[in-house]
Amino acid sequence: MAQLYPDSVQRLITELNRLPGIGARSAERLAFHLLAAPRDEAMGLALAIREVKHSLRACPRCFNVTDAPTCHICRDAERRQQILCVVELPRDIIALEKCGVYDGVYHVLQGRLDPLANIAPENLRIAELCRRLTAENIEEVILALNPTTAGDATTHYLAAALRAQFPALKITAPARGLTAGVDIETIATSSLAAALRARADWAE
Ligand SMILES: [Zn+2]
Q1: pLDDT at 181
Q2: Do 80 and 29 reside in the same domain of the chain?
Q3: Bigger pLDDT: 192 or 65?
Q4: What is the C-alpha to C-alpha distance for residues 40 and 35, in angstroms, rounded to an integer?
Q5: Measured in angstroms, how far is the CA atom of residue 71 from the centroid of ligand 1?
Q6: Do 67 and 126 belong to one domain?
Q7: How far is it, in rounded angstroms, from Cα 73 to Cα 122?
């Protein structure tokens, strides 16, 4: 079939099509929207993407995303430093912060164990977590991984590893009753807040 679009337009459609939830038709529609948009508006989008990729990095302490030397949560002296919540991804921090019930610090694993995708413990920020537990005065670790099969497997692994290495550490998890199989970011804020408040000691 003859090429329908000039190369540059085809490239834009291909890139948009890579975004989650954007199928081929939506990518086409967005591309034509951008072509028709005023230059400033389209360039604003391009510059915002460039800026975010240029300036964002992982916080060296908790691996949240930040455009500063450390993230805004690690910089916040009001937050309780003795309680640490372990999550899979930075977006989980956003979901938990929206609840407004947690005032401790975080640690982002940057993923979850997934043997099928060759994600092993050494591919996650577990060694860094253990270093924090050794160096910082942390009393409780909340394992707030996604209530999915892979998230649960990661929780079990971490709980056993932390218990072996830090016997005095209090290890808790958000209360179940969360719909199994969904990600933290899709759980209703009120349910997540309730699960966090009603967290219980990890008992395996
Ligand atoms: Zn941080």
Answers
A1: 66
A2: no
A3: 65
A4: 12
A5: 4
A6: yes
A7: 25
Give me ligand 1 centre to Cα 61, in Å. Answer: 5
Residue 1: pLDDT band with limits 50, 70, 90: low
**Same domain (yes/no): 118, 168:** yes
Are 68 and 37 members of one domain? no
Distances from the Cα of 96 to the Cα of 74, 91, 105, 110, 198, angstroms: 15, 9, 11, 16, 14
Residues of the domain holding 25: 7-55
Instruction: Give the domain CATH number at 167.
Output: 3.40.1360.10
For residue 13, how far is its CA from the centre of ligand 1 (angstroms)? 36
pLDDT band, very low/low/confident/very high, at 144 (cuts 50, 70, 90): very high
Whole-number Å distance, alpha carbon 105 to ligand 1 midpoint, is: 8
Domain count, the chain: 2
pLDDT in tens, 65-98: 999 999 999 999 999 999 999 999 999 999 999 9
**DSSP 3-state assignment of 100?**
coil
Same domain, 11 and 69: no
> Based on the domain organization, do 21 and 69 belong to the same domain?
no
Give pTM, 2 decimals. Answer: 0.80
Q: What is the DSSP letter of 202?
A: -
| Cα 103 to middle of ligand 1, angstroms | 13
Whole-number Å distance, alpha carbon 196 to ligand 1 midpoint, is 20
